[in-house]
Amino acid sequence: MSTYSIKDLEQISGIKAHTIRIWEQRYSFLQPSRTETNIRTYSANELKMILNVSLLNKYGFKVSHIDKLSPEQMEEKILSLNQLDAIKERVVNHLIKETISLNMHGFEQQLDLYIAQKGIEKTITEIIFSYLERVGILWMTNHINPAQEHLVFNVVRQKIILGIERLAPVKQFTKRIVLFMPEGEHHEIGLLFIHFLLKQNGIYVDYLGANLPVADFKYFISIKKPDYAFCHITSPAKGFKLDRFLDQLSTIDKDISLILSGQLIQNFEGPVASNIQIKRNLADTLQLLRSL
Q1: Residue 138 has what pLDDT?
Q2: CATH number of the domain that 285 lies in?
Q3: Of 166, 187, 202, which residue sits at a domain end?
Q4: Final residue of a domain: which of 107, 132, 166?
Q5: In sequence order, what are the beta bridge partners of 42?
Q6: What CATH number should be reported for the domain holding residue 62?
Q7: Mind giving me the DSSP string for 83-121?
Q8: Model-level pTM?
Q9: Residues whose CB is less than 8 angstroms from the CB of residue 209 and which lie 6 or more positions away in sequence, other chains included
Q10: Closest among 202, 204, 201, 181 to 191, alpha carbons compared
Q11: What residues contact residue 240 under an 8 Å CB cut-off, 6+ apart?
């Protein structure tokens, strides 16, 4: 069973580590184990508990009151929250809990319920987007194994593709952008999400997808001459050299603006060609895309 550090709980729940320590001292709902060096570790059940407590506390319930609730009563209170933001956060928390439990039936059921109520576009922008932001920490800290990753990503991938297909086709456009990922990179969710946002905003997308050799990318843009090219790099195969990849991109037509984002390049400090922009976080990436 996975264990989590107090830093993990802080990043996933949004509750400061200092506050979590105070809650442990005053209340009984968290009882972490400790390593031989006295470092706190938390179980999957305690992670789920902190998600429940943080949600109820955020929307008006005192922690002293929450501490006295049974699990059934706590769930009842959570379901009674009717503020729009609370409902969204409850759904995202539910998805995180189902991910931890490896319950893909419950995961997809929750997504389908929201789609039935709000539509696929709102599900992507309000739920899947927030889920991916928050669950990313589980991947970065190795708390989700490959089986969980594949199950979750395939469900999310299907929903985003459904959303893309349901958007009105872009028939008239002034700009076009090509989306791709380098050879050896298969983590497609982020790129699909970008595709959805661009098509939603009326920008024509050439979607080349994952695992694309640079030579094939160069051939495509030499024929189609897009205005922009966007590349998202999360976790490419072993042997991928970012410096070499950037050198290859530097030989591309300077009239085409290249945008790079993703976990791998967030801290890159080396030189880049004049037509290459590196976006180090999601907020900057989205701001740029909205300006196209």
Answers
A1: 59
A2: 3.40.50.280
A3: 166
A4: 166
A5: 4
A6: 1.10.1660.10
A7: SHHHHHHHHHHHHHHHHHHT-HHHHHHHHHHHHHHH-HH
A8: 0.77
A9: 179, 180, 181, 188, 191
A10: 181
A11: 182, 183, 184, 185
What CATH number is given to the structural domain containing 111? Answer: 1.10.1240.10
179, 203: one domain: yes
Joined together, the tokens standing for residue 12 give 């996933």
Which token pair is 72?
């059934």
Q: Which residue segment(s) compose the domain that 157 sits in?
A: 82-166
Task: Identify whether the C-beta of residue 58 lies closer than 8 Å to the C-beta of residue 90.
Answer: no
Residues 233 and 263 sit within 8 Å (Cβ to Cβ) = yes
Say whether both 179 and 75 belong to one domain: no
CA dihedral (223, 184, 266, 10) positive or negative: positive
189 and 245 share one domain: yes
| Residue 59: Cβ within 10 Å count | 17
* Side-chain half-sphere exposure of 54, counting CA atoms within 13 A: 22
| Residue 180 φ then ψ, to 5° | -160, 165
Q: Which range, of 15-29, 216-230, 234-248, averages the lowest pLDDT?
A: 234-248
Residue 176: phi, psi to the nearest 5?
-135, 150
Q: How many domains does the chain have?
A: 3
3-4: strand order across its sheet: 3-4, 40-43, 33-34
pLDDT at 112 over 70: yes
